[in-house]
Write a structure and sequence with these properties.
By secondary structure, the chain is mainly alpha-helical. The chain is built from 16 helices and 6 strands. The protein has 3 domains: 100 residues, DNA polymerase, domain 1 (Orthogonal Bundle); 124 residues, Orthogonal Bundle (DNA polymerase, domain 1), CATH 1.10.150; 167 residues, Orthogonal Bundle (hpI Integrase, Chain A), CATH 1.10.443.10. The chain starts with a helix and ends with a helix.
Length: 408
Amino acid sequence: MSCRCKLSHEEENEAMNMSLRGALLRALSIQGVPEKRRKHCVSWVLWYERFIPDRPPQERSREDAESFISHLQSRRLEAWQVSQAGKTLRLLYFRVLGEKWARTWVFPGERDFTSRHIGLSERSRFLRGVPDERDLLQRLDKAICIRQYSYRTAEAYVSWVKKYFLFHRQRPREALTPDGVKAFLEYLVLVRKVAAGTQKQALNALDFFFGEVLGLELGDLGDFARSKRPKNLPVVLSRDETERVLGALDGTTALAAGLLYGSGLRLMEALRLRVKDVDFDCSQIQVRDGKGKRDRITVLPERYLEPLKAHLVRVKAVHESDLGQNYAGTTFWPSLGRKYPYAPRQWIWQYIFPSSRLAVDPQTGRSIRHHLHETVLQRAVKAAAARAGISKRVTCHTLRHSFATHLL
């Protein structure tokens, strides 16, 4: 009897781990990790599972993850391999398991690996009297959460502040001065040769960090080397070219691309549309939480009224099938989900362009469905432009530019 119980426990752990790996693959896909690299990430998780076989990753702590990375370093693996393993665990714990500590986690050896480009030494703390780096990152994370910034903005800001700490590792006191910011911004342009948008994003991140975390005003930084922003004209398709591109698409991607052009939607605005956002009677689409966290109303082209209705009939059939399969619902805002726990399963909250596959929530073991991944539509539009013989660089945003131009 004892052997049978032990086997059952092992089988249960393996089932949980398989569910976890599936959720990790989904997170890697959402993050845009190339498919050929995803299998290596899963391999690190498999190794991590075997490292502490009696406890699944869900029951382990940050100290367990750090012990595993230190173990890899003791095996004399290449620095890039240790870095890949650490980043995989950070993604696993933050994006999949929802552990807040993982967002600002600096795994052992990460500073050494990152600093090979800028000649920085490994030191765990600032000099005496200067706040601990980990404490500052936690305070930054809290400030971002309070202001409800998007995940991508939060990820970018945390990443830039980490790089800023690394740049000033040998002179940590300078990190808390405007001159330190100025030196870092010039380094990005003169040494790293970054684009103007990248330098501006770094400045925005540091301005937020100084103002909201340190309570200091950066003020006017004066003259410093700035990356020149090229004055590129947007790519615009003619009406004939637009029809050829849209005609080369089919299925769900044809409808989604049609809304990019016909309604002037941005890529993620289209993919994040929910059933309740479309008003067929008024031929309108309500864009929620768009760029700059602003809502707006745009047109629903008559051309896509019936195709969209037919598409929603198919989506609803999939939704009804999901409801009978331990379906937890669509991906949802955590705070709103606590207020309306049944909303994620309701039809009006489902994505208009759902993913073709269910994902697994590793915390509950239940199935969830995200929206179609942006790379699916991006690749489809690029391939359609090639089939249509368009000799321009056509992206999803090109359709939005064309919408605005054709309205003039």
